[in-house]
Amino acid sequence: MSVISVMLRKEFRQFFHNAFLPRLCVMFPIMIMLLMPLVANMEVKHVGVVVVDNDHSQLSRRMMSDINASEYLSLYATASGYEDALDMVERGKADVILEIPYGFARSLDVGSPETINISANSVNATKGAMGLQYVQQIVASELARMSVGMPEAKVRFSTLNLFNPTLDYKHFMIPALMIMLIVMLCGFLPALNIVGEKEVGTIEQINVSPISQLTFTLGKILPYWIIGFIVLTISIVIAWLVYGLTPAGSLITIYTATALFIIVMSSMAVVFANFSQNMQQVMFVMFFFVMVFILMSGLMTPVQSMPSWAQAVTYCIPPRYYVDIMRATYLRGASIADQTFSFSMLGLYALLFTAVAIFTYKKQN
């Protein structure tokens, strides 16, 4: 135990000797948590709409007023014809064209069927589809307002958005950012630390010392428990103070999962560092795996939306289980007992990568 304590003191002295790393571990989560939830937003807002009003009726004016008052739409301009409106879309000034035909309101009054044209710039498919949907909702709302004298519907719907009542995308994004911080800091830093010692030659002093493979590996992994917990705590506090988001579940569940995941990432970093001779090698390897983790763990896109073969591959990606735990605990209030499978898989990967890290460390070149 005394040997491990010596190793830990050595690691922390080395960590604080580099003035940049302590600042990075504090400022990085602060900047990410303050800025990214505001800019990395998948909600589609401020879709520019150009209206071709051939009707010039009270109904068409109400539609334009509703578009301008919408949080998601903005009335960019009214055009005299479809060609003028299309030119605005092609120049990137607007995203959706609403063309109201001549005599539209009068035709509705007499019960004559009419067609209203809505065109969207679908270069960005998500923005185009959502813009169409928003404009359709406004048109449908105005048409429903005109339906005076119609028999009242016998069925009414009561809707409820579970676990995110306000549909605020930041609630989905903030746990993902916490996971990314743990992946980046607890994945890259241990690998860069070991390879840095190889490049300057200080690891040779460890190679000739009576330190076992287990002690060396634990000495490289355990400091990142503390660093990871500090980063997570900073992120949770900022999420509470700035965005008003607090975990619906227990902090014990979150920190237990984080402890296992830090072991997974830091021991994986030790494995890669054991096979790397310089910074370039380990940086490319870590960058490759981090990109795979971000894209295939369900961090940004749902696993259920992936092809069946990709869904099968995600079971081999440890961050998938940490993503499931964090979102379920933060938003749904799930406990450890509710997530036995994910915790078991994280624990299994932690043991596996720690064992590989121990056996791949060679004291003699």
From TrEMBL:
The keyword Nucleotide-binding does not apply. It is a multi-pass membrane protein. GO terms for cellular component: plasma membrane. One of its GO terms (molecular function) is ABC-type transporter activity. It is found in: Cell membrane. It holds the Pfam family ABC2_membrane_3. Residues 132-364 form the ABC transmembrane type-2 domain. The chain crosses the membrane at residues 20-40, 172-195, 222-246, 252-275, 282-300, 341-361. Gene3D superfamilies: abc type-2 transporter like domain (3.40.1710.10). Keywords: Cell membrane, Membrane, Transmembrane, Transmembrane helix, Transport. Belongs to the ABC-2 integral membrane protein family. PANTHER family: MEMBRANE COMPONENT OF ABC TRANSPORTER YHHJ-RELATED (PTHR30294), MULTIDRUG ABC TRANSPORTER PERMEASE YBHS-RELATED (PTHR30294:SF29). This is ABC transporter permease. It comes from Candidatus Amulumruptor caecigallinarius.
